[in-house]
Amino acid sequence: MDFDSSEAVAELCGRVLDFSRRQLATGGVNTEGRWREAGEFGLLGLSLPSEVGGLGLGALATAQVLEALGKGLPAIGFGFSMAAHLFACAMPLAKFGTESTRERLVPQLASGQLVGGNAITESEAGSDVYSMSTRAARDGDHYVLTGQKSFVTNAPEADLFLVYASTEPKHRHLGISAFVVMRDAPGLVVGKAFETRGLQGATMAPLYLEDCRVPLGSCVGTPGSGADVFEYSMAWERACLFGLYVGAMERTIERCVERVRSRRVGGVPIAKHQAVAHRLVAMQARLEASRLMLHRSCWLMDQGRPAALEGALAKLCVSEAAVEVGLDAIQLFAAEGCLPETGVDSLLMDALPARVFSGTSDVQRNLAFEELMSRRARLTSDQR
Description:
Structural class: alpha+beta
CATH class of the largest domain: Mainly Alpha
Number of strands: 10
CATH topology of the largest domain: Butyryl-CoA Dehydrogenase, subunit A, domain 3
CATH architecture of the largest domain: Up-down Bundle
Distance between the termini: 30 Å
Shape: globular
């Protein structure tokens, strides 16, 4: 396994780090101009095929670029928005969308002319996403969608949504279909934006579908294949999005190193205290383990090899490690780490949601266990 960046990817990572510090670190709302800037730079099409306006990067290179982005941003909210736009909307449309969708919509998503949102989560379905109550019924040459989605990232500014609905409720996950729904579709209503403590800069809102009519051609993939569409997007999201957190952990540790070198208590730098030194080493160990697990998961995807176990473990490891590193950073900064103006708590506040989205930490444990048992069963069978 070779996790080293190519010269071209290393150069791109350097430019992304500089771009994120200069252009994206100012905070504020996600304006149309901000999305266009990110699109023109290539951040919205990292893993999209070149024929639809993307850079055509593999999973490992994409994760490495997102590490640079996470390191350059003082808080990763807008990075999260961009990743959700790319992995949960643009990528599945490029893979499963009709020829018209690929030619008409995906290039505009890659350029930032259009902003995408993914609408699958429902408040009463929780982690069992396929227990959704949203329904889609065929009516002549249209589908009529009825239901409510919650925590739709980018909803306040999105131009289109990838909406999941049940077309055959009795078939559970085999009866889920995916639809591309434009913001101006009749019957689609975007609710009031949520106020969140973490991931500042990532906007979220509920989505209401009130007899929302969409053409038959809006179905992404074939009717009933929505689970395949969703799992494809989640494989990319779990593998690559968490590069943001690897970069954010590295940024935080660098800041902590500077802190313990410069802060003196009783005339002695606190770095001289063994307890402080051991805490920093533990933080670095979590960072290195997270990076290795994430890179291995991405490398396996690029090789076309099974990576469900590795992806679940990487997502679990990175999200849990980011929380611990965030807590340690506050501890090292003491009282100042609790002051909003210092921004020391940004990693912790951004990392706490990471244990929930893209499947909670417990869901990742379940996925990893199922894949582990399946692999062991196959190995035992092959040895007989």
